Amino acid sequence: MGHDRVYNFSAGPAMIPEKVLERAASELLNYGGSGCSVMEMSHRSKEYDAIIVSVEEKLRRIMDIPDSYSVLFLQGGATMQFSMAALNLMGNTGCADYAITGQFSKKASEEAAKFGKVNIAASSKDKNFSYIPRQSELKLDPNASYFHFCMNNTIYGSKWDYIPETEAPLVCDMSSCILSEPVDVTKFGIIYAGAQKNMGPAGLTVVIVRNDLPFCPTDNTPILLSYPEMIKTRSMHNTPPTYGIYLLGLVLDWVEELGGLAEMEKLNRAKAEILYNRLDASKLFKTGIEKPYRSVMNVTFTTGDEALDKQFIDGAKKEGLITLGGHRAVGGMRASIYNAMPIEGVKKLAAYMEKFEAERQ
Ligand SMILES: *Cc1c(COP(=O)(O)O)cnc(C)c1O
Asked: Among 110, 151, 154, 339, which is best to mutate for testing ligand 1, by the most ligand atoms less than 8 A from CB?
């Protein structure tokens, strides 16, 4: 890496590919001969329309999104989708199914409970969120308007190893795994993701929504929280996060140049394997996540000794490996190795882990 940059293992906002940042910098003051920055353009201008249309086209191509789905570029983060999904769908039957496999899915269920009855269809809390419940264990409510789950649990470092099969449409938080591997969009009613993990800067939230879902916003639903309104106006009821959308376009160009999502998945698996192999070989570090459910994006581990964990994190920083502290709710370490983390950064971290352990034997 150039520019004296460090390997940043932050869970989000996370690294953005260096090539993307360089291109953004080169276009920052004068975009495509327009004489102004993308940041300074009217979202209703011809120039900006070309940008947002092309970003949507690229995302549809890369993720293979059918025409029966809309792509929305919203604000408010993944957290706003916790409310928006419930506000637009819960009213159909007054209830929805939620699988609780970590903090964010729990937060989503708490938000939904403001708008109707939440049925906890499954939870892995009994074993500290170290596993993913099996399909046969899901206690589905036959009346549910939808089934909500979080594909990759950013904080605990676990991931669903299958897509649940339910009568009700699937609503899925993919904030920390979107674009990391191919996914069959047709299996989902709604996919949403905050951009700051795998897609670009914070402030942009991508929502992929099947047009024929029975949306039921009421007269009291805030206009910006209505999917039908946002679909109708192509995310332009008000000013969309224009610069974040542009940057997403640059990230998508980078993904395509690398070979698309199948190639991305290979790269990501190779990176994760380096760290999990190191953990499995280690006597000092361990991960609490059971093997089939280990996240490819967020690798959590600990020595089991808080003071030693701190030594590890502080020492890593001196090596240019930053933000390795675990989420404040769980402690320990977390290496977030999203698309933009180069494999060299992961190798450097694995080597540092080995050295740290050898010095303490
Ligand atoms: C980061 C994250 C969130 C929260 O995202 P915001 O954009 O800050 O609201 C929600 N869900 C998952 C899975 C995340 O990784």
From this structure: 154
